[in-house]
Amino acid sequence: MNKRTYILLSISSLILIILGGILWYGITSVVSLKDEENVLRGEMQAWIKRSKQTSSLQNTLLEAKKAKASMDNYYFVATEENQIALISEIETLIKDTGSKGEVNSIDVAPDYSRLIGSVTIVGEWNDVYHSLLALEAYPIKINLDDTYITEDSSIAFESKAKSGRPVYRAVVRWTITNVRKPE
Known about the structure:
Blueprint: H1 3-72, E1 76-77, H2 80-96, E2 100-108, E3 115-123, H3 125-136, E4 142-151, H4 158-163, E5 168-176, E6 179-180
Parallel strand pairs: 1-6
Antiparallel strand pairs: 2-3, 3-5, 4-5
Helix pairs in contact: 2-3
């Protein structure tokens, strides 16, 4: 072998070693980039999943708030103002059915678990009956615990003079169990 061939073989070998190193570096870089891509893809999918869960949770919370707001209409917050308003509403409700009504008592249980009251309704049978139905259908659930109905000929009532029909007196004890303590 002559010197020239030896130099060409050395240079060719050196070039092959350099090209092999460059190729090895390129392959390892691509493999590590693929591994990093897979990790980032997994993190992105986890983030998307959490985002969907968060969105779903936010929707659920929003629906729960709406449901709570609509349910709040069915609870009685036992403040003095609300008790006075309830008395007025009950008496107006009875009056609107054609009877006369008067709330005799209203008391809040010490633990705010219920509101107990009593009302007297006076009128013709149909009117008294409709007053009782109206109380039962009131948006805040009123439980009619005891009802005593008697025909009372001693009561002076305008419609009796007009119709000649008997007048009835109903004394009703009621309870509201959907009571909340004032905040």
